[in-house]
Amino acid sequence: MEHTFLEQLQQRPLLCDGAMGSLLYARGITYEQCFDELNLTQPELIQGIHSEYISAGAQIIETNTFGANRAKLETYNLAERVREINTRAVKLAREAREIAGQPVFIAGAVGPSGRPLQAPDEQRLSELRAIFREQIDALLVGGADLLILETFSSLAELRQAVLAGLRISARHHPGSSRAGRGAVHHGGQLAGRRRGDRRPAGRDGHAEPPARVLHSEQPAHQP
Fold first, then answer.
1. Closest CA to 106 of 183, 191, 169
2. Which CATH superfamily is domain 5-211 in?
3. What is the dihedral of CA 211, 150, 75, 38, to 10 degrees?
4. Sign of CA dihedral 53, 55, 58, 62
5. CA–CA separation, 223 vs 208, rounded Å?
6. Omega of the bond prior to 116 within 30 degrees of 0, cis?
7. pLDDT band at 196 (very low <50, low <70, confident <90, very high)
């Protein structure tokens, strides 16, 4: 891509796509199904939605991986397919970009684990970081341009996801990880969003590039 994500974000707002889950539901996928598994079982459906968002003007498209972490996939007996589901999701988004011929960014979507987090101890937090590291590693291996930590209601859990993202990003791109209000890594960039934040992404008033945050007005796509 001619300009990196951070360079473009410094120059102007960037428009994100909308919800994946709402469109899947509208097209006959029930909430009892695993939306993330559709990357494997109905790839043409997922890629088609990406293509529609690109045609509508989205400059950032999110992978269909909001619930593609080990904890959530266990519910569907898919815990051992974390890497496969996440890498395939990135591949579908990248193929949609290639077909469209538009310089859109691919954002690896990471949602909460879905596990209760009352008074977490260090062992529980360590387990959470491992869950997020596994998913984030697969997204970056697949070729995601950045990460979006989406619709977290727990700051404690969000922090573990950020820490996991920074560690994995540093592993893929040694020496270039940074942290800020929204942690961003060049070449494996990390952006956080809280429930109730709104799109599009843009300047947040901070001088340092790592303080950029992507915003969302969309709810989680699975309960």
1. 191
2. Homocysteine-binding-like domain (3.20.20.330)
3. -110
4. positive
5. 35
6. no
7. very low
